[in-house]
Amino acid sequence: MIKLEPRGQHSKLMAWLSPVFAGVLTLISGAILFALLGQDPLEALHTLLIMPVSDIYGLAELCVKAAPILLCAIGLSVVFKAKVWNIGAEGQLLMGGLIGSACALALIDAEGFWVLPAVLLAGMVGGALWAGLAAWLKTSFNANEILTTIMLNYIALNLLIWAVHGPLKDPDGFNFPESAMFSDSALIPTLIDGTRIHFGMLFALLAVVVVWVLLSRSFLGFQIKVLGLDASAARLAGFREKRLVWIALLISGALAGLAGVGEVAGPLGQLVPSISPGYGYAAIIVAFLGRLHPVGILLATLLMALIYMGGEMAQINLGLPVALTGLFQGMLLFYLLACDVLINFRIRIPALSTPATDKLAANQEAAN
Amino acid sequence: MDIDLISNILYAMVRTGTPLLLIALGELVCEKSGVLNLGQEGMVLMGAVAGFVAALLTGSLMLGFLLAIAAGIAMSLLFGFIALGLNANQVATGLALTIFGTGLSAFIGSDFVGKPITGLEPFALPLLSEIPLLGKMLFSQDMIVYLSFFLFAAVYWFFRSSRPGLIVKAVGENPHAANAIGLPVIRTRYLAVMFGGAMAGLAGGYLSIAYTPLWAENMSAGRGWIALALVVFASWKVERVLLGAWLFGLASILHLVFQGLGFSISSNLLATLPYVATILVLVLLSRNQVRARLLAPMSLGKPFHASS
Asked: Which parts pass through the membrane (chain A) (predicted)?
């Protein structure tokens, strides 16, 4: 029998190795799954993970998918540091897309350099408002933020569907549930001609830097981290807990909102019912996988964007359902949680332990 | 409003509330043992897809329900292994279970979207179903609804007057004390988690075999999460779970009621009602922090490791 034994302290090494283990285990499980489905596992993995990024167009598409995930995940790293479990990045993204679209459509005849900033700002406000609702419910009424943010996700989705069927529907659109195309001055310019990569990726990278500075170099970031590590210590130090919860949620909501408006004003160019294939939920996995650290999140985002592209590729080339993406996401998170046990516990196989190894272990424990 | 309309609304209310009742009863037992499983949504979806596929391929609805339950239990064991066996954070593990279940169910079900089956038919009990107003609501339903009445009574009795019920409560209130007097904490929690999985799986099967009956991606539409809020609403009391589930069933069919009464409100806007109601309920029930903490099982969500 295998036994788990507390390490007595966190293992920093394991904290960083665990995501790598999780990735490898997901790949192995994926290969087995493909073999069971009658595919050549290596070729399938090649189709899934290498083919999407083997040319410049593919790399550009990777960035298009990465931008919204990165924005949501980096925002989530702020709230998760405060141990506020915002599961609502998806809803905040949708509201950002919705409010941003409403602004772009109201300004459809306007021209000038100020239109796009106004649209982006509206999107960020939309996302922040939606997260602000959860902050209000949590700080004023003590309502569990996991449940409220999830409910707000469903409400946001229904509001979005209502809007594209009603007030924001294109009057000349033959009754399709989508808005009119935005005017050129409301669209985010592309970075490289002939691809869809746009300035949104730069916003995301900028957000990563800003959040990094906030969390590691500012007093506000310090307060947020203390609140997450030990709420009573934060209270004792005189930090205003409710204010911190508000700020953390507003930051994460605004960034998710930016991700949403970046989709409608970027690659889509209009409001449609399906602006997000679950980017907001994927961002939760990314935030955990990246250990809430900016660099880790950046790497995890690229992996997640690749899984999204691989899912589409597998559908086109192998005839597998696109839901493969969700399956891989789930496996990744599960393996991560399972491997994370090694951070606080070490595995012992009692059959192999002798009095000598027991003594060694005891000495080590004492040294710690 | 005439009596037929009211009687029909009550009938639909119970029907719509049944999956919520099943999930919430399972989660209640789970939480009473101190385990918070946020993976209900994933277990429901797996139950729904497994039940539907089995019913479609074999033509046996019974087999469909059994497989739905089995799928729910299998998913709950996955949760149990990681959260109880490996002591992982229960919140994160539950979320992972939901994300995994959503993905896996969509993957399995992708070839079965939109395929029709003949769903479970209602079975009116003779005489009883003739009772005015309540007859249709309580005695003209299908077998799974009747089963939900029975399961409700069983869980009520389990916690009120059975010894195993007492053990579950002891483990949930103070696992260290329970461990000290020799109660098997982890085994009890595993069994509670498996019961939760079975109920969520059954609820999923009910959705795809009886209620809709068809399979669609994400067809549970947040019912797993609403049921979690229901347990909070019920203050962890069995009888209030029944009341809450039916009330939420009513909130979910309000758009039909409004349409029946001739109001014209966008159905997409009315579809937000159950979610808005969930938030309102959470606000009302959680406002008093001390009360909320006293009602919840003491060790809810905390991992238990015998050596610590």
From this structure: 12-36, 56-80, 92-108, 114-137, 146-165, 197-215, 244-261, 281-306, 318-338
Q: Which regions of chain A carry the CATH code 1.10.3470?
A: 66-320
- B167: domain CATH number is 1.10.3470
Q: Is the pLDDT of residue A70 over 90?
A: yes
Residues 6+ apart with CB under 8 A from A353: A361
Which segment of A260-264, B49-53, B232-236 scores lowest on mean pLDDT?
B232-236
Q: What is the DSSP letter of B124?
A: P
> Residue A365's pLDDT band (boundaries 50, 70, 90)?
low
Q: Which residues from B are below 8 Å from A166, CB to CB? A: 266, 268
- Pick the more confident residue, B306 or A274: A274
Is the four-CA dihedral B153, B155, B160, B164 of positive or negative sign? positive
Task: Say which residue, B307 or B96, is predicted with more confidence.
Answer: B96
Mean pLDDT of B236-258: 86
Q: Is residue B14 part of a domain?
A: yes
Q: By the 8 A CB rule, do B104 and A330 touch?
A: yes
Chain A residue with Cα closest to B111: A321
Whether B180 maps to a domain, the answer reads yes
Mean pLDDT score, B91-104: 89
Does A340 sit within 8 Å of B38, measured CB to CB? no
Find, among B153, B182, B185, B193, the residue nearest to B73 by Cα: B193
For domain A66-320, give the CATH number: 1.10.3470
Among A1, A33, A322, A333, which would you mutate to test the B interface (most chain B Cβ atoms within 10 Å of its Cβ)? A333
Question: CA A175 → CA A108, A276, B265, distances in Å?
Answer: 19, 22, 19
Q: How far is B261 from B263, CA to CA, in rounded Å?
A: 6
What is the number of structural domains in chain B? 1
Nearest Cα residue in chain A from B292: A142
B222 contact residues in A (CB cutoff 8 A): 150-151, 154
In sequence order, which ranges of B162-222 are alpha helices (DSSP H)? 163-173, 175-180, 185-205
Q: Is the pLDDT score of A236 beyond 70?
A: yes
Contact B272 A154 (CB under 8 A): yes
Q: Report the residue from B92, B104, B217 with minimal CB separation from A327.
A: B104
The Cα–Cα gap between A322 and A324 comes to 5
Complex ipTM value? 0.87
Chain B residues touching A288 at Cβ < 8 A? 92
Listed range (A272-276, B38-42, B66-70, B268-272) with the worst mean pLDDT = B268-272
- Residue B205 within any structural domain of the chain: yes
Could B287 and A328 be called an inter-chain contact, meaning their C-beta atoms sit closer than 8 Å? no
Judge whether A159 is closer than 8 Å to chain B, CB to CB: yes
B99 contacts in chain A (CB < 8 Å): 281, 284-285, 326, 329-330, 333
Which pLDDT band holds residue A255 (cuts at 50, 70, 90)?
very high
- Smallest Cβ–Cβ distance between B99 and the set A321, A322, A333 belongs to A333
CB contact under 8 A, A321 and B107: yes
Residue-number span of the structural domain to which B254 is assigned: 3-295
> CA A289, CA A326: separation in Å to the nearest integer?
15
Residue B305: band (very low, low, confident or very high) from pLDDT cuts 50, 70, 90 = confident
Is residue B308 one of the residues assigned to a domain? Answer: no
